[in-house]
Specification:
579 residues, 5-stranded mixed β-sheet, 46% strand, 10 helices, 30 strands, elongated, mainly beta, 15-stranded antiparallel β-sheet
């Protein structure tokens, strides 16, 4: 079966063509400096590009204290960033368009670093090394290719300057933010320059974000390292080689429960991004609120169930360890009280997450190469290539009653009855590996001609492998006691997972033709001939197969320059959401 979805957008807009204006001093006058963007595969003035774009320059990024994508998109109209789960799985939506799946290979708004895609954890991208951020709204398939059905975000990294210079930035807030970043770069020789960037985060959270089992919710930590070499042996040739390393560990966001009366009183302080769950004492809120937490039940969480039971965290007579043992004995469980207690604790440990592992872990290494060669006739040849390896895993607890899974397993194992209520999924773990490869070749005409063009070809491959564990005691694998757990319960945890594998290869031929009808009016025709071959395997369900889709993705636009500060444009674009 082939799935080929397209969206067509047409419109006329009045565009104030700068989001972060910069000015230069000339005598006693301030003049507007040109902003250059690269989203159509060549350097162009922002005002001349008939696309809905927001551009954030380096000064604005630093002055506003942006530390993550949520901060970024608060400054950009038409963009929303879903951070309900975590920054590793959260994605941007543009004008309400985004996938409803958390899998990173299902995105409809993709991030790019120096024009090359990244499908893994977009939220772990560091801002310390960025010179400019370009946010494109609407279908961008003609320019960027795959997974830009709703829009694209292009992060431009900093190049070395003409002199040795460095900086150190410390970002601290009373909320718990602690980020130390450093930058150093400049020339090594007359033809070789370097740029080093480093960032270390160890951000805490308010003290009331500690759950009943001791988990600190809302914490973020990690490191970002990057090194770039730029070699320009002549005016005609430039080579850039860059390596980046990202490692993050975030604990889950806090979920706080309060009484219904307190919830209703709190509702008046919430913004439009709030959801008050019906029939429960829960509030989901993006941003800040002014609530009376004194009526709250606190953050409930038993990620470490063994610790919870052993230390008496449960309600006495309901789900404490002594009650569990007594119930089992009353139901006729074999063995002494000590043996029954040991069995219960082993099962609890299998359904536990060690506190230092709670949350999500992500690690990515990425290498990019860019070559630019300028011919004598003013034409240019550009080549870009990238390879990336990423691994991530989530461990979190999503239970309502935090001993249900333990009791349910005990019941299934012995046939004896112990109370089970409100059974819900407990631990989720999804170890995932992503590999990406990308290459693109472009031929670019001189930018001063009345007729300008870009032609090129690209190929992009990725492999996505994730193993999803639910309710089967993944803690036994983490703790190395799966054999004991299997002997007690009959569950082979290492075989109790859902494996999902996906491979994709995207090939494209693209062009961009721009023609100046007058000094003020320019027409542009872009297009991409693209093929997507996607194959997938789901051993748990037995489903597997492949889909290949092909198509032509055009974009036609006209731009009229009203003045130095304003343009009018009209655009027709088509985007593809490949199968």
């Amino acid at each position: 079966m082939k799935i080929f979805n397209t969206v067509v957008v047409a419109g006329v807009a009045l565009c104030a063509c700068y989001s972060a204006p910069t000015f230069a001093q000339q005598g006693n006058n301030l003049v507007f400096e040109e902003i250059v963007i690269t989203g159509r595969k060549r350097e162009e003035s922002l005002q001349e590009v008939p696309v809905s774009i927001s551009v954030l320059g380096e000064n604005l990024i630093q002055d506003t204290g942006i530390v993550d994508q949520f901060d970024l998109f608060e400054l950009v109209p038409g963009i929303h960033y879903d951070q309900n789960h975590d920054r590793m799985g959260a994605k941007a939506s543009v004008r309400g368009i985004q996938s409803n799946e958390t899998a990173s290979n299902r995105t409809k708004v993709t991030a790019f670093i120096d024009g090359m895609p990244i499908i893994g954890s977009q939220g772990s991208t560091s801002f310390g090394s960025m010179q400019q951020i370009e946010v494109y709204r609407g279908p961008q398939s003609a320019a960027f290719g795959r997974s830009v059905f709703g829009g694209a975000i292009n992060y431009i990294t900093r190049d070395p300057g003409d002199t040795l210079e460095g900086s150190v930035n410390l970002n601290v807030s009373d909320y718990g933010t602690r980020i130390l970043a450093g930058s150093f770069g400049g020339p090594l020789t007359d033809t070789l320059g370097f740029q080093l960037e480093a960032e270390k985060e160890d951000s805490g959270a308010p003290s009331d974000y500690r759950s009943t089992d001791g988990t600190n919710y809302g914490e973020r930590s990690g490191e970002n390292l990057s090194a770039k070499l730029v070699w320009a042996p002549s005016d005609a040739f430039t080579a850039e080689l860059m390596f980046s390393h990202v490692k993050t560990h975030d604990t889950p966001p806090a979920r706080y429960f309060i009484s219904e009366d307190a919830r209703d009183a709190c509702a008046g302080t919430l913004g439009v991004d709030s959801i008050i769950t019906m029939g429960m004492a829960g509030i989901y809120q993006i941003g800040t609120m002014d609530c009376d937490w004194s009526q709250g039940a606190g953050i409930i969480g038993q990620n470490d169930r063994e610790k919870f039971l052993r230390e008496g965290g449960g309600v006495v007579g309901v789900n404490d360890l002594a009650t569990q043992v007594a119930n089992a004995q009353a139901a006729g469980a074999p063995g002494t009280a000590a043996e029954i207690e040991a069995d219960i604790l082993l099962i609890a440990a299998a359904y536990s997450i060690p506190l230092d592992e709670v949350g999500n872990h992500d690690e990515r290494d990425r290498v990019t190469l860019q070559l630019d060669y300028l011919l004598d006739n003013g034409h240019a040849l550009n080549f870009s290539a990238m390879t990336s390896e990423e691994s991530y895993i989530r461990h979190f607890d999503a239970s309502a009653d935090y001993t249900n899974a333990i009791r349910a397993t005990w019941n299934a194992m012995t046939g004896f009855y112990t109370p089970v209520t409100n059974q819900q999924r407990t631990i989720m773990s999804d170890p995932t590996d992503i590999s990406e490869e990308y290459a693109e070749l472009r031929w670019i005409s001189p930018g001063e001609e009345r007729l300008r063009y870009v032609v090129g070809a690209s190929v992009y491959k990725y492999n996505f492998v994730t193993l999803k564990y639910f309710n089967a005691g993944y803690g036994a694998v983490m703790g190395g006691f799966n054999d004991e757990f299997e002997a007690l319960t009959g569950i082979d945890q290492e075989a109790a997972f859902n494996a999902i594998v996906e491979d994709a290869t995207t090939k494209g031929l693209f062009f961009n033709l721009a023609y100046d009808f007058t000094d003020r009016l320019t027409g542009t025709l872009e297009g991409r001939f693209q093929s997507d071959n996607v194959s997938g395997v789901d051993p748990a369900s037995g489903n597997s197969g492949s889909i290949e889709t092909t198509g032509f993705l055009p974009r036609l636009s006209f731009n009229y320059k009203v003045s130095e500060e304003m343009s009018l444009y009209a655009q027709y674009a088509k985007g593809v959401n490949p199968g």
